[in-house]
Amino acid sequence: MKDLKIYSRRDFPPYLPKLNSLYDDLFSGGKGFRAELIRRISGHLGLGEKPILLQAQTIEFIHNASLLHDDLIDRSHLRRGKPSAWLKYTPEYAVLAGDYLLARVMVNLSEYGNLRLLQYTAQMISDLLEGEWIQDSLVKDFSVTIDQLDQVHYLKTASLFKWCLRAPFLTAEIYDEELHGLLDQMGDLIGLLFQRSDDLLDFDIRNHEGKAVLGDLKSGYINSFSAVLMEDLSKENRELYVHCQTMKGLREVVGEDYFNAKLKLFDDINQSKIDLYGHHLQRLIESLPASQRGVEKELSRLPRILYWRDPKA
Ligand code: FPP
Ligand code: MG
Fold this sequence. Notes:
Strand content: under 5%
Bound molecules: farnesyl diphosphate, magnesium ion
CATH class of the largest domain: Mainly Alpha
Number of domains: 2
Order of helices and strands: HHHEEHHHHHHHHHHHH
Number of helices: 15
CATH superfamily of the largest domain: Farnesyl Diphosphate Synthase
Mean pLDDT: 96
Largest sheet: 2 strands, antiparallel
Helix content: over 70%
Shape: globular
Radius of gyration: 20 Å
């Protein structure tokens, strides 16, 4: 199976032209990383084209539904370099388009009939929403702790990554509890690492894609690296810090050496999470039959891609 066609107009009713145009825009720019991860894992579990496509569509539909809603909540004007759906099609249609994707997911999964997969997917959507609710309650909370942020990241970000690791096994009707426990822990770690790396982009660290900087701070959201940066600042410098508008200004407020020491500390903390992920991976591989051990290659590259943002991994 070479090309995974996640989005096709044919999957949506032709009598809904506005919805079709909105989805054309939405799906044309995504990298489809989650779908590709599912495809790679599923390939080692002997799954066929149809169940792979079902999973790939499920995760990309949910991910894109959450982005439609998220851009409205964040009032973001751009998504994947194009005007956000709520700006182009009105907020009402952006919300409805997100809801419709979720509805399609439930129709497709219930038709497929794997109840474990359906239940787990419903739980994942519920987690995603809880994460967003908690995150919104933390905006303008300048004394937020890394533990509070981790809770949001497990719910909002890791829930989807975890699903990518576990769903192929559920689809292959492999339900072993110990195996799913390990995949759960690995998904949590990889989701946390991805989010923490994303939080570093806000400070222009390993920002190869040129994402806008200081967006979180300017909207009053203290992200995970911000929390680490703020912890040893004086009261006066904290006040200056939360009002910084440029990276140059921010580095001046905290001091160059302080900034670099905190970055090193943050990377070291996260490297220990990567080591733990590697430890779980080894246990996972030992528990798998030889025919499925090819998943090691797919899973071992994730920290390099998602935390270190290594384009060659
Ligand atoms: C991007 O975060 C957004 C998410 C990871 C999830 C948002 C979830 C919801 C809006 C809940 C609704 C869910 C469904 C299923 C409809 P970000 O704002 O940190 O990243 P960004 O810079 O890409 O916008
Ligand atoms: Mg957003």
